[in-house]
Amino acid sequence: MNPQTRLAIDGYADASPAPGTGWGTATFDLIHSPADADTIAPDTPDTENACTTADPRIADVLLREIQPGDLLRVTGIVVQPDDLTAPARFTVDALEVLEAAPATSSS
Question: Could you tell me the pTM of the whole model?
Fold first, then answer.
């Protein structure tokens, strides 16, 4: 069994969230950059987290309001799959929008 950790992380929505497999659920990818760039190697990659929520209130916000590039803080349970190259799975039970992505103009 994989260890589970309760965690809060900040990251950017990689793409528009999508409806999950059941009513009141949603999925999205969150890109987390290392917190202290001065203490890590310059080529350290960002971390991708595959996020899901079963909270209908959070799913509604994700599906109606969140756009790619929004800076989010998510809190929940993270599980690293046995395949260490696969993204961690993050079950979100709290969501905060820290900064909206800049609006794009259509020409």
Answer: 0.79
